[in-house]
């Protein structure tokens, strides 16, 4: 991963780096690896994440189809 520093603006480069790391999921990965997670807990967590993703996808599809109220476009 590479971030360019323009005009000696290190603060802006740091912000860009943090945003890239957040998007890649590095911070979440570090948080999960901080402590040992039992295999049963890992399975339960991953199953919950999968359920959440499936519900979100179904909700987005229903909104696109017009079956569920969704975010309205600004006028």
Automatic annotation (TrEMBL):
Domain of life: Bacteria
One annotated Gene Ontology cellular component of this protein: ribosome
Region called Disordered, residue ranges: 34-75
Keywords, alphabetical: Ribonucleoprotein, Ribosomal protein
Gene3D superfamilies on file: Ribosomal protein S8
Biased composition (Basic and acidic residues): 34-52
InterPro entries: Ribosomal_bS21, Ribosomal_bS21_sf
Presence of the UniProt keyword S-adenosyl-L-methionine in the record: no
The organism's taxonomic lineage, starting at the top: Bacteria, Pseudomonadati, Pseudomonadota, Alphaproteobacteria, Hyphomicrobiales
NCBIfam families: S21p
Name assigned to this protein: Small ribosomal subunit protein bS21
Family recorded in the similarity comment: Belongs to the bacterial ribosomal protein bS21 family.
The species this protein was found in: Roseibium algae
């Amino acid at each position: 991963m590479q971030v360019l520093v323009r005009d000696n603006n290190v603060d802006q480069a740091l912000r860009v780096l943090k945003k890239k790391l957040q998007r890649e999921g590095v911070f979440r990965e570090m948080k999960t690896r901080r402590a040992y997670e039992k295999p049963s807990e890992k399975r339960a967590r991953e199953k919950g994440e999968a359920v959440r993703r499936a519900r979100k996808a179904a909700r987005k599809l229903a909104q696109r189809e017009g079956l569920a109220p969704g975010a309205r476009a600004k006028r």
